[in-house]
Amino acid sequence: MAQKGILVVVSGFSGVGKGTVMKCLVERYDNYALSISATTRSPREGEEDGREYFFRTREEFQRMISDGELIEHACYCENYYGTPKKYVEEQMDGGKDVILEIEIQGALNIKKKYPETLLLFVMPPSAAVLRERLERRGTETPDIIKARLKRACEESEGIENYDYILINDDLEECVAKMHSLIMDQHLRVSRNLSFINEIRTEVKAFSKGEI
Amino acid sequence: MAQKGILVVVSGFSGVGKGTVMKCLVERYDNYALSISATTRSPREGEEDGREYFFRTREEFQRMISDGELIEHACYCENYYGTPKKYVEEQMDGGKDVILEIEIQGALNIKKKYPETLLLFVMPPSAAVLRERLERRGTETPDIIKARLKRACEESEGIENYDYILINDDLEECVAKMHSLIMDQHLRVSRNLSFINEIRTEVKAFSKGEI
Predict the structure, then answer these.
(1) What is the largest CA-CA distance in chain A?
(2) In 3-state terms, what secondary structure has residue B122?
């Protein structure tokens, strides 16, 4: 049953460790492709065009929007972020499950265009653990931590639109569970209609003694 | 996260081995309860009331229907079959995932009443394998095998309404996959709203410096 890949959107609270989960997932299993976003924000130190992001000017980004080259785009902090369509569709056609790490606004736009998208939201085991993780980094002032927690709040407003939550308590468990959730989607009836019809037709032929 | 159990309906082609899959599942994991159907058909040799079925007269069965004691009932081959509500709800309230092995008509009735029911359909890896399995039993005439294949066809008409298919090629794999599919449902956003709200409220309080 060679199948088209699945589109998976992973979102989650700031500080929950979703980046690490996705990195492990892609390292451990070979069925994934990580989508790379286009953005108008400036590269941070160490970031490379085409690796972390496709860095584009505002004019180039506007052209990509007009030419329908993005499957979704959204604006945060006065910068545009978007998902290039070509890469995503090529990977899915090649059977890869494509993972996008995007925020809620973008996630819901994608679900509208591709209703079979799997929306996953990574949660901390508790709010206290989330705060601890942010504090443990030790590099951020209490005000920045508060701002990130505030952002986590805002992000959480759309969770009801997601399909599944994943709890990032133990990293290995969370990675395995994410993989299993994605694999299971390959068994959705709606993704197996041609296989179902094939069996149905053959069973019918057998029952009539035709073959 | 103590949760209410999940209602799972398992259907599948006659001869596909779904009985064996479910027996293994229940033996191997302790989160399941198998629902026992009520029926008006006569017990076959070796069948016991309250083990394979609750055997009831037609009058008793009619009374159960009138008193709302069944969550679904259907008629096959002039006999009634139904699922007693009390046992199912008690088990689910106690956190058990309840499995019903019923046919498509009953499955769809259950889904209407309990929209969160997980509908699984067990498929053979191919139609040829299904025929082989039926023939290998060696106890049935070609005509009976044809009749069972014909019934398999009829059963397959509603697969589109199911959530997932499972392919019973290797028994162990099929059992593990069924377990994983059911476990995943516990992570559905709709089943975790109180946990989500709890985290949300706490993160909000942290971000405001209230706690």
Answers:
(1) 77
(2) strand
ipTM of the complex: 0.85
Q: The domain A7-35+96-207 is classified under which CATH number: 2.60.120.280, 3.40.50.300, 2.130.10.10, 1.10.10.10? A: 3.40.50.300
Nearest by Cα to B124 from B42, B210, B196, B20: B20
Q: For chain A, report the end-to-end CA distance as a whole number of angstroms.
A: 23
Q: Which residues of B touch A162 (CB under 8 A)?
A: 189
Q: What are the domain boundaries of chain A?
A: 7-35+96-207
The closest CB to that of B162, out of A123, A166, A189, belongs to A189
pTM: 0.87
> Residues B163-181: pLDDT tens digits?
999 999 999 999 999 999 9
Q: Could you read off the pLDDT of A2-18 as tens digits, one per residue?
A: 689 999 999 998 788 88
Cα nearest neighbour of A149 on chain B: B207
Interface test with A, best of B187, B195, B210 (most A CBs within 10 A): B187
Q: Decide: helix, strand or coil at residue A79.
A: strand
Task: Indicate yes or no: CB of B13 within 8 angstroms of CB of A203.
Answer: yes
User: Is the Cα dihedral B155, B157, B162, B168 positive or negative?
Assistant: positive
Per CATH, the number for B7-182 is 3.40.50.300
